[in-house]
């Protein structure tokens, strides 16, 4: 089997097997698991994965680990060809997923903490000004 690359505006509700749908606008890619289990895989592009079109076939980097599906498959897709890698154990899959979630949380938290720090600095400055004029 070979995975075809298909650029789409949005990922369709019904996915065809052996097709990687890529929506640049929504920064997502969708495909059905290569093992045939029917699990729908959604990738964050370019956040977690890169998707390339290779002569009409899909190349995805890095490997896809099916952490949230029953099969725990792990593979890379190169020019449509699936190369199987060692399956993750449930524990390894869990920790990988946690790492990915933590990374997203960290990404989300950055601007907030920056604003929080700025806000704190502004408050401290206001306190200083108050104490100068309060004397
Ligand atoms: Zn599968």
Helix proportion of residues, in percent?
A: 25-40%
Strand content: 25-35%
**What's the β-strand tally?**
8
Can you list the strand order of the major beta sheet?
1-2-3-4
Major β-sheet, in short?
4 strands, mixed
The poorly predicted ranges are: none
Give the averaged pLDDT, no decimals. 87
User: What ligands does this structure carry?
Assistant: zinc ion
Number of helices: 1
Q: Please indicate the count of domains.
A: 2
Shape label? elongated
Cα(first) to Cα(last) distance is 80 Å
Secondary-structure element series: EEEEEEEEH
What is the oligomeric state here? single chain
Pfam families: BubE
Q: Please, could you describe this protein's structure?
A:
Pfam families: BubE. By secondary structure, the protein is of the alpha+beta class. It folds into 2 domains: 88 residues, no CATH class; 46 residues. The chain is 33% helix and 31% strand. The strands form 2 sheets. The protein has a 4-stranded mixed sheet with strand order 1-2-3-4, with no helix packed on it. A 4-stranded antiparallel sheet has the order 5-6-7-8, with no helix packed on it. The longest helix is centred in the C-terminal third of the chain and has 45 residues. Zinc ion (ZN) binds next to loops.
């Amino acid at each position: 089997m070979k995975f075809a690359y298909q650029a789409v505006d949005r990922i369709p509700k019904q996915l065809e097997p052996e097709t990687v749908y890529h929506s640049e606008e929504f920064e997502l890619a969708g495909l059905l698991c290569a093992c045939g289990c029917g699990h729908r895989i959604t990738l964050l592009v370019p956040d977690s994965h890169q998707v390339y079109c290779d002569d009409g076939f899909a190349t995805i980097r890095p490997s896809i680990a099916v952490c949230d599906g029953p099969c725990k498959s792990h593979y890379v897709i190169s020019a449509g060809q699936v190369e199987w890698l060692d399956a993750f154990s449930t524990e390894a899959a869990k920790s990988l997923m946690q790492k990915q979630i933590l990374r997203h949380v960290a990404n989300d938290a950055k601007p907030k903490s920056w604003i929080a720090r700025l806000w704190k600095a502004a408050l401290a400055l206001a306190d200083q000004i108050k104490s100068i004029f309060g004397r």
